[in-house]
Amino acid sequence: MRYVEEFRDPKAAKSVLAAIAQVADEIGATRDKPVHIMEICGGHTHAIFRYGLDKLVHDGIEFIHGPGCPVCVLPRSRVDECIELAELPEVIFTTFGDAMRVPGTKKSLMQAKADGADIRMVYSPLDALELARRNPDREVVFFGLGFETTTPSTAFSIQQAAREGLTNFSVFCNHITVPPPIKALLDDPHMVLDGFVGPGHVSMVIGVHPYDFIAQDYGKPLVVSGFEPLDLLQSVLMVLEQIRDGRAEIENQYARVVPEHGNPASLAAISEVYEPRPTFEWRGLGEIDESGLRIRDAYAAFDAEAKFGIGYGAAKGRAVVEEPEGAACGLVMTGRCKPTDCPKFGTGCTPEMPLGALMVSSEGACAAYYQYGGARATEAAE
Q: Would you call 333 helix, strand, or coil by DSSP?
């Protein structure tokens, strides 16, 4: 298959759906509960609802939405720290657009910009580097945010800044890794998960083997998936076939993009620039050991936390910030409830006036339900 249309072919989809139904019936004959499959990536969540896959698959399958959106899992305290940095008079704060409207405890970056902070949306950290070159009398801070997918570009930018001696460029590092929160979910006795659809873009960088522990230690299958409807349906079928056969393996449905061992150049840059943090806070999951990355001492001159004494780099420590009152962000983030179960969904929390990142992020589960949920979103709003 070479063209996107082929991955959206209705006839092919019907064939895969029929196979899914057959395998699901075979599994259902031996158990009295649905098969719970967690799609880890928020991009997968949006694809599922955009194409109505949740309605097309067998009734014995339930999708559980995982913490696969780096904007969504960012705790409000880190947003507050972004704003604290951005409001420094000497700082030009740069960020990707999807983080602009995420609310902190008092305001969002968008509101801080309206209040006068010099906050600029960029398309890559290279844009922030260029701003640093053009504004030698200002401190340019890039909001480094994302899973392993975006980490290499930030690492390459830090390396370039070091080569050029750009002392007015730094990164507020919030890069996080996917495997540790999956382990945290699997260790949670309240979570019932039978298998996983793994994030294809992350595996494009790290490969498939960082997930081996899921099969080896927990006996759960994971299939790395692409993002088109047929990708997802085939991945669900592959997970179901493993469950039916009593297997637990890490399989790669997205082999046209994902190499088994990842991207060597990207992995080398990540290893050179970053090291695991002892701990990092995730929204809805709390502190998870070695789940975040920090800038190594060799590149400390480009670490905004160290340069400005903020966040984990502050001697005073970090304050714990509670979730918005009445909102179920943490429960939705960890798959414990659906967005429409939140009492604020569609009423106190909308894309125009969000309480949490799940409603504003392009990969947020609440945004997916609100945008593609149709009657469900309407009913919740009423």
A: helix
Does 76-176+292-313 match 4-69+179-252 at the fold level? yes
Output the six-digit token pair for 176. Answer: 């996080």
What's the CATH number for 4-69+179-252? 3.40.50.11750
| Token representation of residue 83 | 């704003």
| SS3 track for 185-227 | HHCCCCCCCCEEEEEHHHHHHHCCHHHHHHHHHHCCCEEEECC
CATH superfamily of 76-176+292-313: HypD, alpha/beta domain 2 (3.40.50.11740)
Over 60: is that where the pLDDT of 329 sits?
yes
Q: At what angle do helices 365-372 and 42-50 cross, to 10 degrees?
A: 10
Residue 32 burial by CB count (10 A; 0-12/13-18/19+): exposed, middle or buried?
exposed
Q: Cβ–Cβ contacts within 10 Å for residue 351, how many?
A: 14
pTM of the model: 0.90
Q: How far apart are CA 320 and CA 181, in angstroms?
A: 19
Alpha-carbon distance of 316 to 310, in angstroms, equals 9
Q: What is the dihedral sign for C-alpha 19, 25, 31, 33?
A: positive
- Identify whether the C-beta of residue 183 lies closer than 8 Å to the C-beta of residue 296: no
Please measure the distance between the N-terminal and C-terminal CA atoms of the chain and give it in whole angstroms.
44
261 φ/ψ sector (left φ>0, alpha ψ -120 to 50, else beta): alpha
Task: Answer yes or no: is pLDDT of 378 > 80.
Answer: no
Q: Give the model confidence (pLDDT) of 90-137 as tens digits.
A: 999 999 998 998 888 889 999 999 999 999 999 999 999 999 999 999
Q: Is the alpha carbon torsion for 255, 256, 262, 264 positive or negative? A: positive
